[in-house]
Design goal:
There is one protein chain. The chain is α+β, with helices and mostly antiparallel strands and about 325 residues long. It has 10 helices and 11 strands. The strands form 2 sheets. Strands 1, 2, 3, 4, 5, 6 and 8 form a 7-stranded mixed beta sheet that branches. A 4-stranded antiparallel beta sheet has the order 9-10-7-11, covered by helices on one side. The longest helix is centred in the middle third of the chain and has 16 residues, at about 120-135. The termini are close together. Catalyzes the phosphorylation of the position 2 hydroxy group of 4-diphosphocytidyl-2C-methyl-D-erythritol.
Length: about 325
Amino acid sequence: MTGQTAPAQPGAQISVEVPAKINPHLGVGDARADGFHALSTVYQAISLHDTVTAERRSEDGGEPGIEITISGEGAGTLPTDEANLAHKAAKLIALYAGIEPDVKLHLNKRIPVAGGLAGGSADAAGTLIACARLWEVEIGDAELHRLAAGLGSDVPFCLKGGTAIGRGRGEELTPVKAKGTWHWVVATTDTQISTPDCYKEVDRLREDGIGRYSSDVDPIVKAFERGATADDMARLLINDMEAAAVSLRPQLASLMHGGLEEGALAAHVSGSGPTVLFLATDVKHAVALARRIRMRGGAKSVHLAHGPVDGPAA
């Protein structure tokens, strides 16, 4: 998104689809002075999407402001006030433009909630773009990235999608030209893991000599660039938070083991969890694997996804 956005007509609705993210490589360093951990990660956007729809609140006779409604995943449980990252995103883009926020946002959520797939960050990214288009805000890519980074570490990637290296706390992005498509079975669980708690557990385990900082992303980046097979990719998946997630929620180990027994090439905790990703050879294998994992039990829901896919500002 560079230069002037497309103007919105009176009564217009702006809808933006934003993909979930996974981290095929997630290296977690020591905590920095600002409290964040240094990251060396590789992001990939996958084909689970939330849709953000924006329209002017005042056109229905209401007062200007920010109103949020939610359907799908998390409806009735997720906040619709200032605690929602989409609300913060709408307020931020209005502040940037020097205008009073006037938007009714509807979040149709298909990305599993609190699962390490950046659903909240996706909603924030979609809100930035939808509101910019609705309010005809002129904003370049660099400024959009800056606003996104101020909202959260994963928001800048959710704007772009595709595949990218993330440094710093994840917001410093370098695009990767991935060749090929990789197929995943995404299994959610009934439990939740707080991301700050997972980072604390990483630190605790390292004090006990368990785990290390996997800072080198080159092997998996080169594999993506050459279009490596799923079998090759299975050996390169790394998540420094996986041991901490399993330590906090031991039932994840059973789910991962079960998926491997059913034929997954690899089992990989998504981010800080508790969602587990199972790598499949191709779409046919993924469909069969998903069916077997559902029949086996232990997962709250099972989804099919592939990546990489583009983000709304690609």
